[in-house]
Design brief:
It is a single chain. By secondary structure, the protein is mainly β. It has helices at 37-50, 69-78, and strands at residues 2-3, 8-14, 20-26, 58-60, 62-63, 66-67, 82-84, 95-103, 106-118, 121-128, 140-142, 149-151, 157-158. Strands 4, 7, 8, 9, 10, 11, 12 and 13 form an eight-stranded antiparallel beta sheet that branches. A three-stranded antiparallel beta sheet has the order 1-2-3, with helices on one face. The longest helix is centred in the N-terminal third of the chain and has 14 residues, at 37-50. The chain is elongated, with a radius of gyration of 18 Å.
């Protein structure tokens, strides 16, 4: 542990994306030991899920060789995310629902939403926030696919159905 600016401790924290981010903690002489690694891993997983301090994107779910997929699922459920297919997510045109797709120790964040091609042709899908070189969703899961995602319908947001790529 090193001392940061303004009397703060600087602690590296794994963010699950293959890198570390720095957390600044107010200095306290009575707190000499860092929090247990178990609690810290839980805190990092929660930070990935809520997206406030860690950008929700593509996150590798391993730490010190340990697969954190099951633990991440536990934290998703504790945060109100439910396992279901894209087709089962309750989402109307003009709305988007945050969701994670898990594949081979990697969590991808994205949105369930309706993409409008014409005024009468729509399709429901989950699209990752990770984009391909063309600027489209790198991973797309249509409503017809049986892949499981973890979605939180209570965090549903409005969106511009005419510009879904911008989400």
């Amino acid at each position: 542990m090193t001392v940061g600016q303004k009397g703060e401790d600087v602690r590296p924290v794994a963010c699950g994306c293959g890198a570390l981010y720095i957390e600044y903690v107010p200095f306290s002489p009575t707190i000499m030991q860092p929090a247990s690694s178990d609690k810290r891993v839980t805190d990092v997983l929660d930070a990935i899920i809520d997206g406030r301090t860690v950008t929700r994107s593509r996150h590798e779910l391993n730490f010190d060789g340990q697969d954190l997929t099951a633990r991440f699922i536990e934290r998703l459920i504790a945060s109100g995310y439910v396992a279901r297919t894209v087709g089962k997510v309750v989402c109307d045109p003009g709305e988007r629902v945050p969701a994670f797709y898990l594949e081979e120790r990697v969590a991808y964040f994205g949105w369930v939403f309706w993409e409008q091609f014409t005024t009468w042709r729509l399709r429901k899908l989950w699209g990752s926030v990770v984009k391909n070189p063309k600027g489209d969703w790198k991973i797309q899961l249509p409503a017809s696919r049986s892949a499981i995602i973890y979605a939180n319908e209570t965090l549903k947001l409005e969106m511009d159905i005419d510009h879904p790529v911008e989400i």
